[in-house]
Amino acid sequence: MEKLIIEVQETDEGSRLDKVISSAKSDLSRTQIQQWIRDGHILVSERKVKPNYRVKAGDVLSIEEPEPEELDIQAENLHLDIVYEDEDVLVVNKPRGMVVHPANAHTSGTLVNGLMYQCQDLSGINGVLRPGIVHRTDKDTSGLLMVAKNDKAHTSLANQLVERSVKRVYVALVHGHIPHDLGTIDAPIGRDLRDRQSMAVTDDGKEAVTHFKVLERFGDYTLVECTLETGRTHQIRVHMKYIGHPLVGDPKYGFSKTIPFGGQALHAGTLGFVHPETAQYMEFTKEPPADFKKLIDNIRNNVDK
Predict the structure, then answer these.
(1) How far is CA 152 from the centre of its chain?
(2) CATH topology for 3-64?
(3) pLDDT tens digits, 264-289
(4) Positions of CATH 3.10.290.10 in the chain
(5) What pLDDT was estimated at residue 305?
(6) What residues are labeled active site?
(7) What is residue 298's three-state secondary structure?
(8) How far apart are CA 65 and CA 255, in angstroms?
């Protein structure tokens, strides 16, 4: 394929490679650029470097777009709840218990497997295992996800996430009585040094901001609405644990004695974004699934307020 050659000017001296490429190729997301650098599709003076390489004046950057990989994921009819779909984007209501994309432990039954059956066009930016996937939720978190049907849409939606303009509102049931109606948790999140499989609030973590509003109180439990300003891994689960109110049913960050629910009581209920092609703001809302509502009703009916 045709190569794009860029010679670094003095004005870009010291800038990160991925940032320089992003300025030259605005149709690519930073995530995509970083992956291309790691895969050797972007070279510096014929050398493979890391995405955080600081360029020097005179460096010759070569960009060779990789051939699109053929998707080899098994399409499965999982009867996905497609909330909205057009030529560019798709909004799906993911059920609780479903993994978003295939991995070593989950090669079938994932959201991607279902999307491959119900949608023939998905962006290829994230490769063969995550076609169309712009953002993710945990396996046991239900609710709305946006999916890109082409690379242009994917880049637009990914950039909106980076710019924090996507509206993402979750409903969560947490332990404890939260006395104040509104709150903001501004605490950086990184890998837990004691457990690398978990996240935690850490001094050297990435910025993470969650806004919450109390919807209802039931004695030792509180129903809250959480709005994400950032989108770190396990953000709501980590932040609510951090302030002493972990999610009900959470096997990783919750109390050892919790209501058995088969996973955290968390639902992505509202999703809003600007359409990549029409530039119109779109917003979707979906109520929590039946088991979540039953859990809330049981607590409401059996716990003194």
Answers:
(1) 18
(2) 3.10.290
(3) 999 999 999 999 999 999 999 999 99
(4) 3-64
(5) 46
(6) 138
(7) helix
(8) 48
- Predicted local confidence at residue 213, as pLDDT: 98
What are the pLDDT digits (tens) for 145-189? 999 998 899 989 999 998 999 999 999 999 999 999 999 999 999
Q: Is the pLDDT of residue 236 over 80?
A: yes
Q: Using 50, 70 and 90 to split pLDDT, how confident is the model at 209? A: very high
Write down the CATH number for the domain with range 168-269+290-302: 3.30.2350.10
- Find the length of the chain: 305
Residues 150/90, Cβ–Cβ less than 8 Å: no
CB-based contact 238:264 (threshold 8 Å): no
The answer to which of 17-21, 118-122, 190-194, 270-274 has the lowest mean pLDDT is 118-122
Least confident of 11-25, 49-63, 92-106, 123-137: 123-137
The tokens for 197 are 């499989």
Among 288, 286, 240, residue whose Cα is nearest residue 96: 288
Higher-pLDDT residue of 124 and 225 is 225
User: Are 6 and 129 contacting, i.e. CB atoms less than 8 angstroms apart?
Assistant: no
Residue range(s) in the chain whose domain bears CATH number 3.30.2350.10? 81-163, 168-269+290-302
Q: Which residues of 26-65 are buried (b: 16+ CB within 10 A; e: fewer)?
A: eebbbbbbbbbbeeebbbbeeeebebebebeeebebebee
Q: What number does CATH give the domain 81-163?
A: 3.30.2350.10
Indicate the DSSP class of residue 300.
Answer: H
* CA–CA dist 305, 60 (Å, integer): 67
Number of CB atoms found within 10 A of residue 288's CB: 23
Residue whose tokens read 């092609």: 277
10 Å CB burial of residue 82 (0-12, 13-18, 19+) is middle
Token digits for 252? Answer: 């990783």
